[in-house]
Amino acid sequence: MTEKRLTDALELFALSQPFTREQLDQKREALLHIWTPRRFANLTNNPKKYMQAYTKAEEMTRLVEASYTLLSALVVPDDDHRLS
Fold this sequence. Notes:
Elements: H1 3-13, H2 21-35, H3 47-72
Helix pairs in contact: 1-3, 2-3
Protein name: HEPN domain-containing protein
């Protein structure tokens, strides 16, 4: 894991360390809602502009998922769920 990828992922999710699984999941859900490719279906009648927006949304969705996977490894465990 490179420092640049980690910094980019934290910036995309607008998080700073330490963060919880709940915070990470909330940010992921919000980002996926924003960047779901289906949102761009009715924004324009111009097929070229639609495909540009759709392609950008696909790229961002892949980036969100990759960043989520990266950041999942850094989640601070929740003390309430630890076994004694």
